[in-house]
Amino acid sequence: MARTAGDMFTRCMAVELGGKGIRVNSVNPSVIETDFLKSTGVDPKVIAKGMANKLPVGRCGVVEDVAQAVLFLSAPESSFITGTHMLVDGGHIAAGVGYNTAKASANSK
Predict the structure, then answer these.
(1) Average pLDDT over residues 43-48
(2) Which of 67-106 are b and which e, b meaning 16 or more Cβ less than 10 Å from the residue's Cβ?
(3) How far is Cα 105 from Cα 85, in angstroms, rounded to an integer?
(4) 4 burial class (0-12, 13-18, 19+ CB within 10 angstroms)?
(5) 10: helix, coil or strand?
(6) pTM score of the predicted model
């Protein structure tokens, strides 16, 4: 629900602020290898491997993947893009991969 609310907020703000020359976009990442994964108590490499086997791109995301998306959206080359939700997910949504898949893969090792 929170992601849906954020996406709608992005759209509303893009419409509201577009006339003032302000673009509003959001970046929606999937499983990204960060220190947060370490705090789950499961080896982050195991989680990453479990998800990577399910994602169309064959790997989990890294922080640089998200940073590159933000960089693109802030660049002049994206000046006609507003109100969009950029998925940085390695095909996660397109493939219909659930998060529980990674957990199941991690627990089976």
Answers:
(1) 76
(2) eebeeebeeeeeeeebbbebbbbbebeeeebeeebbbebb
(3) 29
(4) exposed
(5) helix
(6) 0.79
At residue 101, the pLDDT reads 45
Q: Dihedral, CA atoms, 25, 29, 35, 37, nearest 10 degrees?
A: 150
Domains defined along the chain, listed by start: 2-107 (3.40.50.720)
pLDDT in the model for residue 106: 46
CB-CB contact of 14 with 25 (8 Å): yes
Record the tokens describing residue 100, joined without a space. 């529980």
What span, in angstroms and rounded, lies between the C-alpha atoms of 47 and 33?
9
Amino acid in the structure at residue 7: D
**Tens digit of each residue's pLDDT (9 = 90 or more) over 55-96:** 999 998 999 999 999 999 999 999 999 999 999 999 999 998
DSSP string, 23-70: ---EEEE-SEESHHHHTTTS-HHHHHHHHHTTSTTSS-EEHHHHHHHH
Q: What token pair was written down for 8? A: 């709608």
